């Protein structure tokens, strides 16, 4: 059901029946390592290229999520997914392997919550019973496409971020035990004129703030409704800008805990990640791994996950275009048997 201008209320409360997270070795050395299902010891995953390794990440996460739900892939009605590669090849090629009817989405790093919101909408409306939502990224494939290949050894400024090597997937269903998706707010494209691909956090922060404010305006609730509001991958620079924007707009973000997935997955003291983490896999593995694990433990009852994305491409950058950004918010609450 439409609520306000850009939000959906899911009155049937679709269930996140199962999740799965797969990460690389660098993520396995971070503070959230115990919350991931599979940690690979080799970022190549015994494949011939970074891109092929990325495809394996989402294939493994998808298959494990289906298995954890007690389903077979033949029972899953739709797979909604996306990634950062040209023509979302990681997700598309994984869909080739899975042979599940596929809906490809591209919201850059916001794709994790974009896919979850769409999956919940399909289930809530009765258009599907089981939907797989999943996203992935790989540090080396993203660096090669958007900045400089890792082998080039270029120095990065403090504003730069480290793309997560990982994939997260969830099965959204009309039935089962688990957290429920109660609402979603679809973001607008916001472009503040930033052109620097090494300053994604600053580019995305205004979009995150815009979507968060729209969510509370549409639903007519206060930030204190949630135990935690978490953005996707603004990291330190973008997080600080978002906090300043909330203050400027007199938005009472201080009523609840506010954090960012890009600041949670790595250890700033021991891992050189500049401003923090980014990538489609960032908010996916932190949400489907760490945050939902905390929810299952009873530490969190209501969370709002606001995945953020920079909608640039190598072509747009080469043509001197600024970076349009977007953010999608999904409300997840403790549900059945939690």
From TrEMBL:
Coiled coil: none annotated. It comes from the Bacteria. Gene3D superfamilies: Stage V sporulation protein AD. It holds the Pfam family SpoVAD. InterPro entries: SpoVAD (IPR010894), SpoVAD_sf (IPR038369), Thiolase-like (IPR016039). NCBIfam families: PRK08304.1 (NF006160), PRK12404.1 (NF009069), spore_V_AD (TIGR02845). This is Stage V sporulation protein AD. It comes from Paenibacillus agricola. The lineage of its organism: Bacteria, Bacillati, Bacillota, Bacilli, Bacillales.
């Amino acid at each position: 059901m439409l609520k306000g201008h850009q939000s959906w209320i899911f009155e049937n409360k679709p269930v996140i029946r199962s999740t799965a997270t797969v990460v690389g070795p660098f993520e396995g050395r971070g503070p959230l390592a115990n919350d991931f299902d599979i940690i690979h010891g080799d970022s190549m995953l015994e494949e011939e290229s970074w891109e092929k390794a990325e495809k394996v990440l989402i294939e493994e996460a998808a298959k494990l999520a289906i298995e954890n739900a007690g389903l077979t892939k033949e029972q899953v009605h739709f797979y909604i997914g996306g990634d950062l590669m040209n023509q979302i090849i990681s997700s598309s090629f994984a869909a080739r392997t899975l042979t599940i009817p596929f809906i490809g989405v591209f919201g850059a790093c916001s794709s994790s919550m974009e896919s979850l919101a769409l999956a919940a909408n399909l289930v809530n409306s009765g258009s599907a019973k089981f939907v797989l939502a999943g996203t992935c990224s790989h540090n080396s494939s993203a660096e090669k496409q958007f900045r400089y290949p890792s082998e080039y050894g270029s120095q990065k400024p403090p504003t730069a971020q480290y793309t997560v090597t990982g994939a997260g997937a969830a099965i959204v269903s009309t039935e089962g035990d688990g957290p429920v998706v109660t609402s979603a707010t679809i973001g607008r494209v916001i472009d503040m004129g930033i052109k620097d691909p090494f300053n994604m956090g600053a580019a995305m922060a205004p979009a995150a703030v815009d979507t968060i404010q729209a969510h509370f305006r549409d639903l007519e609730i206060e930030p204190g409704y949630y135990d935690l509001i978490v953005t996707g991958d603004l990291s330190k620079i973008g997080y600080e800008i978002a906090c300043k924007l909330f203050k400027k707009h007199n938005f009472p973000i201080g009523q609840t805990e506010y954090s960012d997935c890009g600041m949670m997955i790595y250890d700033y003291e021991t891992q050189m990640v500049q401003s923090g983490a980014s990538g489609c896999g960032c908010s996916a593995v932190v949400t489907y791994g760490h945050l939902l694990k905390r929810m299952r433990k009873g530490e969190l009852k209501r969370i709002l996950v606001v995945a953020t994305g920079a909608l640039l491409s190598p072509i747009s950058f080469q043509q001197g275009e600024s970076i349009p950004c977007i953010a999608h918010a999904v409300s997840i609450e403790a549900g059945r048997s939690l």
